[in-house]
Amino acid sequence: MKLSDTRVQLWIVGAGYAAVFVIAAVLILARHLAELNDPAGASGGMYAFGELLMYIFLACLFMVPTALLIWVAARFEAIYTGYSKFLLGLGISAPVCLGIFMFGQSYLAESFNFFCFSRLLASPFFLAGIGFSRLVAKFERAKRFVSYAFLIEALTLAAGVALIVAEWKHGKP
After folding, report:
1. Which of 28, 99, 119, 167 is most deeply packed, by most CB within 10 A?
2. Three-state DSSP state, 73
3. Gyration radius of the chain over CA positions
4. What distance in Å separates the CA atoms of residue 5 and residue 36, rounded to the nearest whole number?
5. For residues 84 and 70, what is the distance between their CA atoms, to the nearest angstrom?
């Protein structure tokens, strides 16, 4: 089997995901054991910030095998077109979540607001993934869908930042 064989590439992607899952499990377990060992020390803001950095690191690690998977899938028009439609739906969820988070907080459950806030915080990661997907797209229809998704995601991120800046200028934290 050659390295250019699709099956070999998919096995490499699977091994990459397995390795990242093992690394994530070890890091999260170590963090949990440290929290059990010193509960008072693990309740501060510095500990929480360290945990946030660890989760960002893990998200970046998961992006590596995902990028390889996107690169392999880009050779198949039907699969990549379906994937690009999924990205478009994912991109459309960003302005919906921004609208819900900014204007519907008092009308919806707190857990749904938290979901929308989490989706907006992950927007730069989605934007990077969509941008990479656009770079490797080979088929016109898929390129169009991914471009729309990228545009929607980028404009939503810009609007969210503008809304935050506007609220800070008016003294509302």
Report:
1. 119
2. helix
3. 19
4. 47
5. 10
